């Protein structure tokens, strides 16, 4: 099968998984353009894929890169805009944020989003996406040990932040 | 709640995040983009290869014809017999039935788009929107999804060749050549592609071959060309021009055009009845198929009675039959 047919097939199989991951990883509601970017990049870089990993982990590693680049771009843009904003104007709202129907899910998500990047990486990949430690290591380009250690720390930190959010320790 | 339980809660919630799949319409758009990208470099190689192969075949065919015709040319009876054998078969567009139109459904059988496919249910079909196909237009054939039912393993990678025959005139052309990809919504194989434009109006029979074997035959209606003069085009087929008001878009080549254009429609009989309508500029665009700059206008073509009407704008004329 040629590269294009393969990417088309992977898009059918994993397009929605990549979309799901990107929505929560970025915290944005509309990530269709990012999904397209991921598969366009995959199409261009298909030669680099050859047998290195499963298509899913390869696509997730591209998705993560695309998300990080886009977040940086938007941050730069909003910094630039804020320089020219008059003091009386309210700051730009982020209309793109995911809308959760349940408050507990919104709390859990915002708590993870407060953590540093590496903690977010392992929590989204290992817990939400249910990837194995080896798969997450492939996505992140880390060793399996580093994934396990980081996950352990991330869970501890997430608990701590979540407790704070819910008004302190124990009842 | 104790500390340990509450700590685990955040992980449980993270695991329970609602599924956020791609929107089906968006999925279609992205597939289209991917497919479109894939054609640019391949097409270039393909054209070169086709030219070389085509050249070899053409030389071979001429040589073969000469060899075969030599004995025939030597006696006249032979010539008449040869010509009668070459007469094209009769086509009757009247008898052929247009293929059924049905819903596009997802994996669970839920309707994604109602009445969006034309073809043979449970065998092979392609997307067909309400505008229908319009002769010589690229925009009505620019984004087509084939969907195929069957054994996905056998279908994947199969080469699809669709040949069209105009059932009214016998004219033929290659509608599409593609390679089947993986499953799509509830279908076992699919490919997104663009058809070549239908060269003329009428009922077209499309014979679809998969790996060289006939897989199914689909009959589609194709409407008359867009109403046009030499340089200007209304985005309405002559077949859709009806008595009364016809709201439409007018495409004029180039940018920096005037804000309004007057269009005169005149009944071509002794009455000389005429109506003038003003089209207003709606914007400058680049035509995606040709990358040419164009200006779009919107307005209404008014025909008070059925019959033959002449349309005139900026000194150019055309005439059409209004139902």
UniProtKB/TrEMBL annotation, chain A:
Molecular functions (GO terms): DNA binding; sigma factor activity
Keyword Nuclease included in the entry's annotation: no
Keyword entries, A-Z: DNA-binding, Sigma factor, Transcription, Transcription regulation
InterPro entries tied to this protein: RNA_pol_sigma-70-like, RNA_pol_sigma-70_dom, RNA_pol_sigma70_ECF_CS, RNA_pol_sigma70_r2, RNA_pol_sigma70_r4_t2, RNA_pol_sigma_r2, RNA_pol_sigma_r3/r4-like, WH-like_DNA-bd_sf
Domain RNA polymerase sigma-70 region: 11-77
Top-level taxon of origin: Bacteria
Domain RNA polymerase sigma factor 70 region 4 type: 108-157
Protein name: RNA polymerase sigma factor
Species classification: Bacteria, Bacillati, Bacillota, Bacilli, Bacillales
Automatic annotation (TrEMBL), chain B:
Name of protein: Uncharacterized protein
TM segment ranges: 47-73
Protein species of origin: Cohnella terricola
Alphabetical keyword list: Membrane, Transmembrane, Transmembrane helix
Domain of life where this protein originates: Bacteria
